[in-house]
């Protein structure tokens, strides 16, 4: 890199300032977290808050430690992650497939549009009890619950994106004597990759929501179940721990897709 | 004389919307001989692009007929290449695979065809950029790549829909010159649609002047320039250039 060796002083200063700024941001982020933990732990120990109701960081860590030892934590976490990934995969496949179908048959899409809009705005938690009655209290139901939260929005957003393809690019395909299939595979889908990735980022979170709702209502395993169970037996340590783990799962899954997106952007 | 390559006979067309119809073209007739370069000028929005869309078969005339080599457009085997206003090179493909797009779509991506594309890329200075992304090329080079994408299909007739209008003036002059030379060298028949009078005179053997919407032909002017080695660029310094310009200008601004 020739630029680095021959960098001017102004450029060096500028880069240094950028680096310092991002360091400060990171430092303050960590500091906020530590201060929050210290305040929480301190006020629990001093009796300012009732640690039976509010728990405390050390109690949460202890609860986690015991559940790691007896292996239950791995089971619950594993089940939730697996269900989320399964429903996310289904949302992605079906979302793209149905959106493509709608794009191919505009009449079909204008017929189905009001149904999709209603289903999309429906609070999906209302569906969960119904799904349990229909499909039984098992992992299938939970995956469908996760799917139901994300799928309609995914279809609508993807379809809108497909329809927004530059008409001149489609005209180019026609001038080259291409068919609708060529337009789909050579223009619509490749140009929609960034859109698909950004919709996936939203969907992974939505699937997690659906899965946890499903687990809360009709499951004997998973973090959603753990939250409901521990609230019923007043084990607030376990409950808060489950929420913390959900935060971590959400962050990790999101950043996985983020990495995929960055890789794609770098490629182009 | 042989049948002309293209015959347009009394073609009319109107756009239909809920609120009514907009006539775009009315009773257009002309013909193009093999190897000829024809320019069509007219005020913007007069239906020039509609005419090209019809020649390419994207639209069907409501009245009249279009014959290619004496046969109706739909039965004709003659290949038509269409160059749009923008290059529309796909950012997710390399220049090479962009250029192969037409061959891919028409399932003609044979070693022979690729050989020809390689020649075109080499001849027109895009060899080094085969693996580049379109965004790495200048506007002029992108337009060349778009032309090669069109030429790869070996069209007998080339339609150019203001292919330089997205470029700045200086690039426009040199790319116009460039593309004009390439078309002459490949001995293609071409129809250029433009609203730029000097561009039309500099490139064409004949200029068709269209009136305001609904467009009808106002006049057809053959361009004869007394210069050696005519290229689009040298044409501009021909002594007759100014006269043609004034004639077309008057015709365009004449009420009608």
UniProtKB/TrEMBL annotation, chain A:
Top-rank taxon: Bacteria
InterPro entries on file: MetI-like, MetI-like_sf
Transmembrane segments: 23-40, 81-103, 115-136, 142-162, 183-213, 239-260
Topology in membrane: Multi-pass membrane protein
Localization terms from the record: Cell membrane
Primary location group: membrane
Keywords, comma-separated and alphabetical: Cell membrane, Membrane, Transmembrane, Transmembrane helix, Transport
Family of the protein in this entry: Belongs to the binding-protein-dependent transport system permease family.
Listed name of the protein: ABC transporter permease
Species, as recorded: Blautia celeris
Lineage: Bacteria, Bacillati, Bacillota, Clostridia, Lachnospirales
Automatic annotation (TrEMBL), chain B:
Gene Ontology molecular function, alphabetical: ATP binding
InterPro entries assigned to the protein according to its UniProt record, in alphabetical order: AAA+_ATPase, ABC_transporter-like_ATP-bd, ABC_transporter-like_CS, ABC_transporter_ATP-bind, P-loop_NTPase
SUPFAM superfamilies hit by this protein: P-loop containing nucleoside triphosphate hydrolases
Record-annotated ABC transporter domain positions: 6-237
Lineage: superkingdom: Bacteria
SMART domains, alphabetized: AAA
Protein name: ABC transporter ATP-binding protein
Organism for this UniProt entry: Blautia parvula
Lineage: Bacteria, Bacillati, Bacillota, Clostridia, Lachnospirales
